[in-house]
Amino acid sequence: MSGQLSVGLNCPSCGGAISVSEGESSLNCRYCGSTLYIEGDNGVNTVAFKNKLDRDAAIKATKAWWRKGFKARDLKSAGAITEVYPIYLPFWSIGTRVAGWVCGYEEKTTTDSKGNTRTEREYKEEMVLMDLSFSEIACDPGDLGIRSLRNFNGEASFEDMDMIPSFESTTSRDDAMAHARADAMARGRASARIPNITFESLHVLVRKLSMIYYPVWVARYTYQDRMYIATVDGVTGQMLSGRAPGDPLYQSLAVTAGTSLGGLAAAGGIIAAFTFQSEIGIAGVILGLIVLGGTYWFFRHGSEIIEGDFADRKQLASLKKGQLGSLLGGARI
């Protein structure tokens, strides 16, 4: 006798009888061939996706990325890859369902022929029922610029998890579930599209909780004695994140065009606002300030092109949301 404890179960796909030995985390149904994952007492399925890229493919993807966007024009000839290696990153993958009601109102302002304005409230009540997917990295990614999982599909790898190069999971299951619930609540609330909420009753159900070890190729390269990094998806072959040198020519052209267009738009808006008392003039001023703010940001950060979930990217996100005060010396729109 082997001394292993065997448990009898039924396949959820075909109903056929299957036998699971103690300690097994996955198996294939002998009747329909379905791949089954065994959930332990902690309620977490763990699976590793198969790495479908080799070293040459990762290098090719990185060099193709060099040629895109506003990166240094001589990067493809002056850049030198010094190190390429695969790593498995752990991600929490959580499926949720949010359901309930959101009530509130939307204010609409109308102007009649005599110039009188009136604001009315349109009351709304929306039902919310959504199935969502949430993911976040389960470790400290360091300078890799990866925070969430983009691809949830892959071929399961049955390699020994102790034998593959991977980052150790350092975040808790409870924290990941709390983040998933908060994300589902926010997305469910936003789906109702009610600007002024007076009442809501939303409930979140966690339907699936998994730990996915995802293959990522890390490429380190040099350009003009500076070190840069890029990451490639080991399943799809797409670029996930990276830093690259910018091109001074693109910076100078962007500054020249941006300041000219932004200045003209702002000046034209001021003239229109004072001459015709028109809202179009105010819109022109705002547009000019946005263009000038974007030009300033590109001038300040265009020397390095950043793609991915790096902390530096948050400044661009703030810019897109209209938070230009800090970039324009305290000016407010």
Low-confidence region ranges: 1-7, 315-333
Strand content: 35-45%
Whole-number average pLDDT? 78
How far is the N terminus from the C terminus?
78 Å
Give the number of domains: 3
Characterize the overall form: flat
Largest sheet: 8 strands, mixed
Total number of helices:
6
- Helix-strand pattern, N to C? EEEEEHHEEEHEEEHHEH
The count of β-strands is 12
Structural class of the helices, strands and pairings? alpha+beta
- Rg on CA atoms, Å: 27 Å
Helix content: 25-40%
Structural features, described:
With 333 residues, the chain is α+β, with helices and mostly antiparallel strands. The protein folds into three domains: 6-38, no CATH class; 55-244, no CATH class; 248-320. It has six helices and twelve strands. It has helices at residues 55-66, 75-78, 173-192, 248-276, 279-301, 313-320, and strands at residues 6-10, 17-21, 26-28, 35-37, 45-49, 80-111, 117-137, 156-157, 196-223, 226-233, 239-245, 304-307. Strands 5, 6, 7, 8, 9, 10, 11 and 12 form an eight-stranded mixed sheet that branches. A hairpin with a 6-residue loop joins strand 1 (6-10) and strand 2 (17-21). Helix 4 packs antiparallel against helix 5 (279-301). The protein is flat, with a radius of gyration of 27 Å. It starts with 5 loop residues before the first strand and ends in a 13-residue tail after the last helix. The relative contact order is 0.15. Residues 1-7 and 315-333 have low confidence and may be disordered.
